[in-house]
Amino acid sequence: MSGITDLKTLLREMRPDLRPGDYVYCSVPADADEWLSLKPLGFFREDEGLTLIVEKADADKAGLTYGPVMRCITLTVHSALEAVGLTAAVAVALTRHGISANVVAAYHHDHIFVPADDAERALVALAEATPVLT
Description:
Layout: H1 7-13, E1 16-18, E2 23-28, E3 42-46, E4 49-55, H2 56-62, E5 70-75, H3 86-96, E6 102-105, E7 110-115, H4 119-133
Antiparallel strand pairs: 1-5, 2-4, 3-4, 5-7, 6-7
Helix pairs in contact: 3-4
């Protein structure tokens, strides 16, 4: 099944869902595949190392250092990888409320990582913005 590309449809049907748990971004050496045993929600290889998105509790147990504690909001609409404007629209909605966002696009959905303390406000911002942006 292919994803939706029409921006108005994506925004109308995105249904933000706040995942349980706290997540953190960690950086480990790029050749350290043993960190994958932490079952990261996501990871990306960069020249500087391997970035892991893992549950905070798992990072703490492994003794990893990390930045801010984040929550994950999944946009439950099946967005196509080639869709244009969804990331920008979400960023604008959150920017209007002073909320930072880190977007991870996966095959079926987009996942927005926001500071844990701002998660509920982010849901409100996305809900308020959807009719305005369409």
